[in-house]
Amino acid sequence: MAEASISVGQDQFMCPVCLELLKDPVTIPCGHSYCMGCIKGCWDQDDQKGVYSCPQCRQTFTPEPYLAKNTMLAEVVQKLKKARPPCPAAPPAHCDTGDVECDFCIGKKEKAVKSCLTCLASYCQTHLQPHYESPAFQKHTLVKASTRLQDKICPHHNELIKLWCQTDQQFMCYLCMVDEHRDHKTVSVAAERTEREKQLGESQRKTQQRIQDREKEVQELRQAVESLRRSAQAAVEDSERIFTELIRSIERRRREVTELIRDQEKSELNDTEGVLKRLEREIADLRRRDTELEQLSHTEDHIHFLQSFPSLCAHPGSTDVPSITVSPHLSFEDVGKSVSQLKEQLEDFCKEELERLSTQVINISIVHDLASKPRKELSRHSSEFTLDPNTAHKHLRLSEGNRVVTWSDPPQSYPDRPERFNSYLAVLCRESVSARCYWEVEWSGKWRYGEGEVYGVYVAVSYKSLGRKGLGNECRFGYNDQSWTLVRFLSGYSFIHNNTKTKLPIVPSSYRIGVYVDHRAGTLSFYEVSDTMTLLHRVHTTFTQPLYPGYSIWSGSKVKLCHQPK
């Protein structure tokens, strides 16, 4: 009967840590019993905290309780071992990198399968069994194994977090509610989640709508790309066909002109050959007559002389060949000149039409307005510029391959030139802009105080016809219809064109400025460049001449043209 009784109560003598019959059983102050080695292993992990707890009920002890072997339990366990061999352990699930470890495994940790929100511990399959079998654990909440259990403990009171403070927007425990959050509006975390789930639903709805909108845009873009490819291929094929026909037409006209010249040459030569033959016959007759006259003049026979004289001295009369007047202009040079003029006219016409055609081609864009695209897209149109020393004011020094301009005192020994600025501290670039182009410049140095503003730098584009001599507005960036400029002040930016200033509502955060020009489209855009790009101002106009980048600085400052990889 004793053995039967022990067999029935065997689970009461199993260690909650290793789930085997107790080995060297000890009973801690809360009344729970463990193997001596198991509880020591658990408490060794608590040495740094100085607070020791029961793995089952979580009661804490300070200092570490003395552990003494429970001899009565040891005898009972010994009888159990003799009465029935221990059950084989379940095969362990080894813990891999990234897995949650079991908090109760001693030595090598096994993979945890569940975490208990009441115990605030994670368990492998073996150590989880008491939570399923023992009534003491039936009210515990099990969740998927998690490494973030400490996030659920109040750091101030070491209690489970169950409340949410809506006033301070933070988690708290019950002790927090009666302490520092006493007069705050608080709800349970479940109630707050319910409220947040409503917001989550709305956010999710907006996100899904955004996804649908973007997917629609993607579909439209893909259709546009395919349409563009088909259209481009058709245009190329049509262009090839038309240009082939044009080449054939020109070849046909070339043959016609050649035939025209050759026909005229042949006709004139044939007519001239007939005249030449008749002239040559007439010359031969005249030579024969001259010979007979010569002979007659030497005859001594008076009767023969008188008889022959009338026929030989008679005028030969009219001939078949009229009087010949050879044209002084026997050259096809005028024809060559006409063909050359035709070539020039065709080239001019083709150039004009090609420019018009190029504008039509460039205006075909899947995504409109390149100026709104990211820096990477703009950089595809980046160009390298150099400063023109022939335009630089004498107080501006150029360096680093004419890519840096610095204020200079004493002045530079530049020669006087018509294109040099002689009053305003300005310089233009050597290269012009006549298509799409993007570049960046960086300003550094001292500010200039005057006219109620603190000036930094003028970043401009200008026609070559901008004035250079004197202090008039015709020589000043932005104060005429020949130039457009962005001015960087200490406190902001302004855009100036045709003597009209527009203050821009942007607080500066960088000293680098990007400029994008689409000459044919008539677009000019200025950007502030840092980790991101901020559009400062954009102009839509019609450019009638090539544009030249230009800069104006003051004492103690400089501008650098930045390298911008494509």
TrEMBL record:
GO molecular function: zinc ion binding
Domain B box-type intervals: 149-189
Pfam family, one: zf-C3HC4_4
Top-level taxon of origin: Eukaryota
Record-annotated B30.2/SPRY domain positions: 365-566
One record GO biological process: innate immune response
SUPFAM superfamilies: B-box zinc-binding domain, Concanavalin A-like lectins/glucanases, RING/U-box
Gene Ontology cellular component terms for the protein in this record: cytoplasm
Residue ranges of domain RING-type in the record: 15-58
Keyword annotations of the record: Immunity, Innate immunity, Metal-binding, Zinc, Zinc-finger
Region annotated Disordered, chain positions: 192-211
Protein known as: Tripartite motif-containing protein 16-like isoform X1
Organism: Chanos chanos (Milkfish)
Gene: LOC115814282
